[in-house]
Hints:
The chain is about 35% helix and about 20% strand. By secondary structure, the protein is of the alpha+beta class. The chain has an eight-stranded mixed beta sheet. Helix 3 packs across helix 7 and helix 6 (about 145-155) packs antiparallel against helix 7. The protein is globular and about 60 Å long. The protein binds 2-oxoglutaric acid and fe (ii) ion. 2-oxoglutaric acid (AKG) binds near residues 228, 237 and 295.
Amino acid sequence: MKIFDSATQHASPVCLYRSRHWVDWQLGINPPLLSELKMDSEIPNHIPFIDFCSDPGALEPGSKGWNHLCREVRAACERYGCFEVAYDGVPVQLRDDMFEAMKRLFDLPLETKQKNYNPKSYRGYQSDGVPLSESLGVEDAPSLDAVQAFTDLMWPEGNPWFCDTVKSMSEKMWELEHMVRKMLFDSYGAGKHYESHVESGSSLFRVMRYKTPEQGEESAMRLVAHTDKNVITVLCPNVEGLQVQSKEEGDWIHLTPRTHSFIVIIGDTLKAWSNGRLHSARHRVVMSGVKERFSCGLFSIPNEEMTIEVPPELVDKDHPLLFKPFKYMDYVSFAHSENGMNTENALEIYAGL
Ligand SMILES: O=C(O)CCC(=O)C(=O)O
Ligand SMILES: [Fe+2]
């Protein structure tokens, strides 16, 4: 992903139409239901909102509520490639602590942050140099060993509060990722592949900081449009800035984070696994306003040698096979090559049949 400092790069016209949903959305009340979104003939300016809190029994696999959520999640991921989820497994205090922890982490001297070296892209300390955007990754979080080792690297004198905060937050986001992945597998009648799919991958927890626009700039692109290459991404940002491109219309939908919600985004790997049914949403970060942006993300990642393959349940005469089997790391290498970076269809070019 390249970083540009101007919102004019790749920018699409922003939808000016505001529906009644949008007003409710901004007020944080009465979020639109998926069925309502589908009936809207206007260009969408919000992504689906799915509530995992209102019926705790619905989080029990196999229950009636679970099956209902499976359908909602699947429809959202097929139509938008992402959704906002209300999930109360993460207390507000933990979320606030996580934002404070990110601030203290990024305020450390550059030499300290650079100690988190990783030869693989987006895993260690990454910055655009200025820095207008920076990120740090912790592979295998929420494992305590991984989080402890990262904490010790950043604070050799110790920082148990930071370690506990990152451990708890990544654990909750990992739980949420698993829940969503299971719902998607169940919704396609492919639940029997869920355990082995989880076992053949791992997690990456990343924290990100984005600077506000420079003086005189109204807005500034801080992360260019891309699809995630991994399985599923769960994001928790403090302020707006994340924009998702709508699948059919190509317009950029601006997301406004709310206190109890997370953003779930489908990656290319899961799009391929689903034989193209799931959409991997293009998204970007455009900064405006005066508040620095912090975001943490839990990325589920296949093992490098894992072969991404469509299960037989997802191929039939109405859904002919769209992707050949491929190794995750080979695809990532292609996607990060010049050819891969210069196209919006890296997955189709690399693995499409
Ligand atoms: O900062 C965010 O919220 C989005 C980050 C992102 O899209 C990524 O790291 O792939
Ligand atoms: Fe992303």
